[in-house]
Design a protein that fits this description.
alpha+beta, five-stranded antiparallel sheet, three-stranded antiparallel sheet, 10 strands
Length: 134
């Protein structure tokens, strides 16, 4: 086999692995989202001191767990570049101890990567599938 053929085969294998990795992430996001069902309530804000944990599901969905094991899904109106890769974000409060749908988040900046701010959506209360809301 000549060197050009080896390079072409290696390049094709690299592209295939990137495509497969991307679809695995999408399946993982869909599987995670399927674990929750809407509870029928949407809030424009949640109290920041109530937030116990956040889980960046993908570049457009963040799950917030608050006191009392309540869960809120924030579906951002637009995809937020770098959010899932960095798996964290920062925000600045404007005087209140609330994070609201008019606020913006910024993916964590690491390794020289720079990401722009992203708008939040409403906070939709969700329950784990098969469990009643509390």
């Amino acid at each position: 086999m000549n060197i050009n053929r080896i390079v072409k085969v290696a390049a094709a294998a690299s592209v295939a692995s990137i495509v497969l990795a991307g679809s695995a992430v999408a399946a993982s996001s869909a599987e995670k989202l399927a674990q929750y069902q809407p509870a029928g309530k949407k809030e424009s804000c949640i109290e920041t001191y109530q937030i116990k944990e956040t889980d960046v599901i993908d570049n457009q969905n963040i799950l917030f767990r608050t006191n009392g094991n309540k869960y809120y899904l924030n579906h951002l109106p637009n995809r937020c570049s770098g959010l899932k890769i960095q798996d964290g974000f920062s925000y600045t409060l404007r005087g209140l101890n609330k994070l609201c749908n008019v606020d913006v988040i910024t993916p964590v900046q690491t390794g020289g990567a720079v990401y722009g701010p992203c708008a939040l959506g409403d906070f939709e209360e969700v329950t784990k599938a098969g469990k009643p809301s509390q």
